[in-house]
Amino acid sequence: MDSKIAMDLTALTIDQIRDLLASRKATALELTEAHFARIEQKDKDVRAYLSLCSERAREQARNIDRKVAAGEPLGLLAGVPVAVKDVILARGTRATCASRILENYVAPYDATAVRRLEEAGAIILGKTNCDEFAMGSSTENSGFYPTHNPNDLTRVPGGSSGGSAAAVAANLAIVSLGSDTGGSIRQPAALCGIAGMMGTYGRVSRFGLVAFASSLDHIGPFGRSVRDVARVLQVIAGRDPKDSTSADIPVPDYVQALDAGAPGLKVGVPSEYFKGLNPETGDNIQKGIDLFGKLGCSVVPISLPHTDYAIACYYIICTAEASSNLARYDGVRYGFRSPEHDDLRDMYKKTRDRGFGPEVKRRIMLGTHVLSSGYYDAYYLKAQKVRTLITRDFLEAFDDVDVIVTPTSPLPAFKIGEKVDDPLQMYLADIYTVTASLAGIPGISVPCGRTKCEPHLPVGMQLLAKHFDEARLLQVAQAFEKAGGFEVA
Ligand code: GLN
């Protein structure tokens, strides 16, 4: 009993939770309550959550405890408290996408990723804050409130999955789900000092993920260690008949692949990814690259020549797709409807005017413009061609190297409010993450030390691999994490 009191049930790894349950040193309900107690205490400052699923979580916890008592087999994530980004549906709970237009929208079904988590025994604690419809890099575009970085509450946690990253970094969940369209898992992982991964496009079902840009959207995990990330990916990856773009390729054993180290591997460092890099971030990344040498890898310079076009290409394609995907919020089928209006057209207009925030409106207008007749060839079609060139850059590079390493973000967490009035500045901060999204290759961000100056902010290293090479990516990421002593848990 004493050891139970001394043990912090919110600072555990998935493996530790499994051992605690098996040895009956803690129950799933105790783990759940410990998290709710910490959320109650800390989340008024961090503001990672938009809503909690207390009843659902407790019911699931009791379920797990019953199974433990009966000696029944437990799932891979039994008793693991999880946070879920509010763009991912969990039946019977609100899914606002951090937008006023969906303020009262209750999900009628579970996303496949959520269903798989629960079937594996995970406990969904609640839904996390993000940029509205996942559009942004700081979580300041939330229609409700910004989330604060647990490393320094005056700073942003990154975005758009800032709530999911902050929840894990502040021990308000063991692991979490985010979505990544152009960096929204990897960048907040970097800014909060944890690991975050986007699998190959099609590796994880998007069923139940509210669409932003369908050809770029992914669901993926955050964790305080690469091992936890691997454990969650293991559960959520795989073919889903409900998402025709999910890949019918067997899911390897990611966890088993982890401990192989990285000797003899070839690591590519693209010269294009060091322009405009904050010097402190650059120092950490350089030290990180040196670590690969110590791991027995050969580090080779490579070139991804079309990198300069990636931001323009991404912001044309993602806005085009967003303008189409967001047409469904018309005040008839979903969520908010403006109460005063003259006729149907006026109702559409007022609903969308009041329901959407400024960044979402900006993207709908941009997207409508690049798709409009007369501009389509110059913008959208051109961007699709550039996307192919960017993908080819990666495929050619992977003929020669096993993984590519880059900074995740050009700068560490910035102050809340610092960039909010300058959308272009905010877009440019996505420079290192949008390329992998456009190419559809998997990427992970892992901690890579902290800046020298106060308040010693986390820096993230991005590792990229070829399509469906997640096992290799996780293996190298874990070797890097161990070599640098970067595990948080
Ligand atoms: N920051 C990028 C954007 O604003 C990426 C967002 C995302 O990955 N969802 O579009």
What does this protein structure show overall?
The protein starts with a helix and ends in a 5-residue tail after the last helix. With about 500 residues, the protein is α/β, with parallel strands linked by helices. The chain has a domain at about 5-255: Amidase signature (AS) enzymes (Alpha-Beta Complex), CATH 3.90.1300. About 40% of the residues lie in helices and about 10% in strands. Glutamine (GLN) binds next to strand 4.
Q: Quickly give the CATH architecture of the domain at 3-257.
A: Alpha-Beta Complex
Mean pLDDT: 96
CATH superfamily of the domain at 3-257: Amidase signature (AS) domain
How much strand?
5-15%
CATH topology of the domain at 3-257: Amidase signature (AS) enzymes
The number of E-state strands comes to 11
Main β-sheet description: 11 strands, mixed
* Approximate shape: globular
CATH class category name of the domain at 3-257: Alpha Beta
Q: Helix coverage percent of residues?
A: 25-40%
Spatial ordering of strands, largest sheet: 1-3-2-4-6-5-10-11-9-7-8
Bound molecules: glutamine
Which parts are unreliable, with pLDDT below 50 for 5 consecutive residues or more? Answer: none
What's the helix and strand layout?
Blueprint: H1 2-6, H2 14-22, H3 28-46, E1 49-52, H4 54-70, E2 81-85, H5 112-119, E3 123-128, H6 162-169, E4 175-180, H7 186-192, E5 195-198, E6 218-223, H8 226-236, H9 254-257, E7 266-270, H10 279-294, E8 298-302, H11 310-325, H12 344-355, H13 358-371, H14 377-397, E9 403-407, H15 423-428, H16 434-439, E10 443-450, E11 458-464, H17 470-484
The structure holds glutamine.
